[in-house]
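hey so i finally got around to running the thing on that chain from the lab meeting. sorry it took forever, my laptop kept dying and i had to restart like 3 times. anyway pasting the input first so we r on the same page abt which one it is
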Amino acid sequence: MKLILILIAAPTILAGALAIYARLIPIEADRFTSTPGPDAAGVHRMSGGAKYVLPLSDLPKDALAKLLDIVRQTPRTTEVATGHGNSFVTRSRGFGFPDVTRIWLEDGNLHIHAHLVIGKSDLGVNGDRIGQWNEALRGSLR
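ok and heres what got predicted. didnt touch it at all, straight out
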């Protein structure tokens, strides 16, 4: 009986500790102000994240404001005040793993960069999230 309790309690305690760690880990301040590449127009998938570079010439003048409204309505997403561009933290369901998203305008392009904070693989969730935002933005433009 004790063994069964230990086999149940140990994973539960470890999962709880992981969830607490994910929610309390400090995120480096430069993650909220950096403007990482690539800078070429297109969709760039990378290990742990993704970046969309959308030419403003393909978007209406109010695309940034509409995109920010879409992002602000995303569940488990909070905005972080910065002096350059817009930064957001989106947390996974359950454990609360943080992903940082940066949105800024540069060289005639709208840049959207999302990347994990903990681990090496995001299992494609950042790219999927940006893709959904892009689809919502383009759907709102029709």
